Amino acid sequence: MIDLVLRNATIVTPTGLVNGDLGILGGKIYKIGKVTEKFAREKDCSGLFILPGAIDMHVHFRDPGFPAKEDFGTGSAAAAFGGVTTVFDMPNTNPPTLTIKALEEKRKIAAAKSHVNFGLYMGLAQDNLEEINLAHGIAGVKAFMGSTTGNLLVCDLNVYEKLFELGKFVIVHAEDEHVIKENTKKYAGTENTSVHSLIRSPKAAYQAVKTILHLAKKYNARVHVTHLSTELEVEELRKFKSEKVTADCTTHHLYLTQAAYAERGNFVKVNPPLRTNDDRQALWKGLKEGLLQAVTTDHAPHTKAEKEQPYSLAPSGVPGVETLLPLLLESVNHGELTLRDVAQFTSTNPAALLRIKGKGKIEAGYDADLAIVDMSKEMTVGQNGYKTKCGWSPYSGWRLKGWPVVTVIEGNIVCENGELNAKFRGREVTYES
Ligand code: NCD
Ligand code: ZN
Ligand code: ZN
């Protein structure tokens, strides 16, 4: 007996669009096309498209430690509304996820509160390689080469060499601390947010990427550079093209440029900073060429009060997990992307990079994690408020066409037309060895 049949949809599969039904049995995709069998539940999806649920490789849900900004419940509710069915949470919480004890504490929090599936990264510190080596079931290790929110900066390359010897998936925030420090001195006293792109210059990003890619090559390590922001980095990546070296960019670097500082000030203060339109175009090109494989959000909420402080005091980071799919779907409606591209960048590729078991594709046998979207639904970002606790978005007021309307996780309808099934809890993902 089939648990749920989604009927009359257009289904985005790895081999193309299929018009028909999607049958779900025991939480897994059972059949795509024509489903004639008897079923327990049925849902008509005429006029709607079914994508594999988005997998966001980079979120900060601030739990434990910063409940005023976000917690795992609110962050994951925002994800569910946005058609994001799995999130990977970063270690710059309080306590930071640097030890097995802290990892287990976060696991309990996420299991108790999360409305979507999740995976966890451990953070790299000067002295925690032993803990990293002994940890089980982590997505990988997050390393901060430049200072940002939290206190997890590691500049010592010897530590990176030892980390690479462990053979884990390493996801890197690549900005050169030395360059940032120099520029901070140079621009001290300037309280205009646009100075952020000068302090954290393209050179800062490029230098760090160059350094880490050289080291990755030496150790044949699996290194993923997150939130690429400049053309210089894309070109550096091209030189090192290898299956082991991968990268993503965020929606804010794809849709915003440094021109946004004038209008939104610290509400678009983010690390790495916003860049020029040429840089933005280079990211799009890099994605299309496969140099970058994934789009992430780097969902990094801070309170309005924190952002309303002067530039030098306001923390960096913007929320994004609710707007990942709406932004990309708007681009599909403009003919700049296909739905298959969206499935690749937000689900299939992240699942492959992180070696997640059973997710990332609409194919028989895979988990039924799905984002059902209405490509003709038009809405203004923020018109119905936000699910993220911070309560704002760098895209507030943007009119977008193409929105997730139903989110399914392992066959369960978790969110439908603005209603969250508050009882459902996601699970921690597992990995191929
Ligand atoms: C992130 C945060 O606030 O946690 N901030 C940001 O500007 N991106 C940290 C990070 O990813 O650098
Ligand atoms: Zn970062
Ligand atoms: Zn981040």
Write up what this structure looks like.
The protein has helices at 72-81, 100-113, 129-134, 157-165, 177-186, 196-199, 202-219, 231-239, 251-255, 260-264, 277-288, 304-307, 324-333, 339-353; strands spanning 2-13, 16-25, 28-33, 39-44, 49-52, 54-59, 84-89, 117-123, 140-144, 170-173, 223-225, 245-250, 294-296, 370-380, 399-409, 412-416, 419-420. By secondary structure, the chain is of the alpha/beta class. It folds into two domains: 4-50 and 363-420, Urease, subunit C, domain 1 (Roll); 54-354, Alpha-Beta Barrel (TIM Barrel), CATH 3.20.20. The strands form two sheets. Strands 1, 2, 3, 4, 5, 14, 15, 16 and 17 form a nine-stranded mixed β-sheet that branches. Strand 2 (16-25) and strand 3 (28-33) form a beta hairpin. Helix 4 (157-165) crosses helix 7 and helix 7 (202-219) runs parallel beside helix 8 (231-239). The protein starts with a strand and ends in a 13-residue tail after the last strand. Bound molecules: N-carbamoyl-L-aspartate and zinc ion (2 copies). N-carbamoyl-L-aspartate binds next to loops.
From the structure above, extract its key features.
433 residues, Urease, subunit C, domain 1, TIM Barrel, 2 domains, 9-stranded mixed β-sheet, 14 helices, 17 strands, 25% strand, globular, binds N-carbamoyl-L-aspartate
